[in-house]
Amino acid sequence: MKDPLHLSEQVCFPVYSLAKEIINQYRPFLDELELTYPQYLVMLVLWEFEQQTVNQIGEKLQLDSGTLTPLLKRMELKDFVTRIRSSVDERIVNISLTKKGTALKVKAACIPTKMMESMDLSMEDLIVLKNIISKISKK
Q1: Is this model's pTM higher than 0.70 or not?
Q2: Facing residues of 53 across strands?
């Protein structure tokens, strides 16, 4: 009988390893854009929604403001985003793309294709993988 506590019997470990590997494969593409992986995720949100509050970004990315705030400050220093406190409620910080941040979208457009090529997976494989992950992740 197999021991259910052996590392080789765990589902979570290959998923953890895969997540790390995928992020490592993103690194050379993101280095060209001067973005870390979490910063890239923020940019994806902003390219889609243009302006968001820190809390809205956090909800979409499942990150808390303690994680997002220093990340957004670094992105502001690179002139990718602006952070502006709401005049109605100063606890709310609105995040918007700068011209440089908007222009970065053109350079980033090739990343999904490059990632698919680097992982040597077909579009069908990726769809199956994404569907399985989404099924597990549903709350």
Answers
A1: yes
A2: 94
And the tokens for 27? 């690194």
Q: Measure Cα distances from 28 to 24, 61, 79, 118 in Å.
A: 8, 22, 21, 11
What are the tokens at 55?
Answer: 């809390």
Q: Which residues pair with 94 in a beta bridge?
A: 53, 84
In sequence order, the 6+-apart residues with CB closer than 8 A to the CB of 50 are 96, 97
Average pLDDT of the chain to the nearest whole number: 92
What φ, ψ does residue 6 adopt, rounded to 5°?
Answer: -75, 140
Could you tell me if 9 and 16 are in contact, meaning their C-beta atoms sit under 8 angstroms apart? no
Please tell me whether residue 78 adopts helix, strand or coil conformation. coil
